[in-house]
Fold this protein.
Amino acid sequence: MTSLSVIVPLFNEQESLTDLLDQLYAALHDRELRQLFEEEFNFEIIMVDDGSTDGSCRLISNMIMSRPEIRLISFQRNFGKTAALSAGFMAATGDYICTIDADLQDDPFAIKELIIKMQEGYDLVSGWKQERKDPLSKTIPSKLFNLVTRLFTGISLHDFNCGLKLYRKEVTRRLELRGDMHRYIPVLAEWMGFKIAELPVRHQARKFGSTKYNSSRFFSGLFDFLSVLFITRYLRRPMHFFGMAGLTSFFLGFSISLYVTLDKILLHKPVSNRPILFLGILLLILGVQLFSTGLLGEMLSTSSSKESLFAVRETVNLGAGQARKFGTIE
Ligand code: UDP
Ligand code: MG
């Protein structure tokens, strides 16, 4: 039996929900989709209400009476889309996990196409809003975001932050998301060694409600970008980052101070009125600080858990108990 979990993060989307669930049910009962799985197929729809203050939560509770495949997780307050997705991933029981936005901008019938693509041998298939139906105030910053992410990570996706994505369960189990990191899920997945692909999907203009994101996201996005870059490169070797910067700074500071000192001793030039002296001192102190930060980082990463040190695809001949430790057994 193959199962699919569809996760829908939602924040004040009550006008869209009835249409969305109708379309999702139609898409998931589609014969062609079911034929993609040779065995029996079932699905669940996990609605994650991210602290909505409209009637979204009540509406979903009512729908559950007639549609038992729907599950609901309702947050105490608004925690953001990353938290909503994480909660959905934790609750999902399917072999395949699909995420889709609640605002009807993503097309539920595209799920079938994502599955076909995944069956070519991918672990994560990400939608690509090739013809994006959003105002310029969204599309231009988004193009920039995708360009920068592509340049820094070397991953050739056009659209990192599409709400429509399909994962194998092994991927969602290993994702550890914080902040607003949902925008970088493909980067984290690729770093863990999963195979990722992209597929153009239809995109609709928002019919109801308004976007939940404004320009402030670009600042928080910058910090998340830095942490993702740091995590994917230096999580387990912070000294390589801080140590290098620290040593460079210390070496420069030391050279400057030596030069000023020799000038004083050999050429009897006064020291106190030379701005370069302060630069030398600053670089020396900075160097020591960066180096100590690296040491602290090493201590922290040594004492923290071994998880996310590596990702194991399968284990052979290891015994159930041990294999479970590597997450390769149910
Ligand atoms: N969303 C959420 N929590 C938030 C903000 C957004 O669960 O704090 C949901 C929202 O309801 C929608 C999806 O995330 O289903 C994408 O949000 P939105 O459509 O506002 O983003 P945009 O498409 O404008 O980038
Ligand atoms: Mg949207």
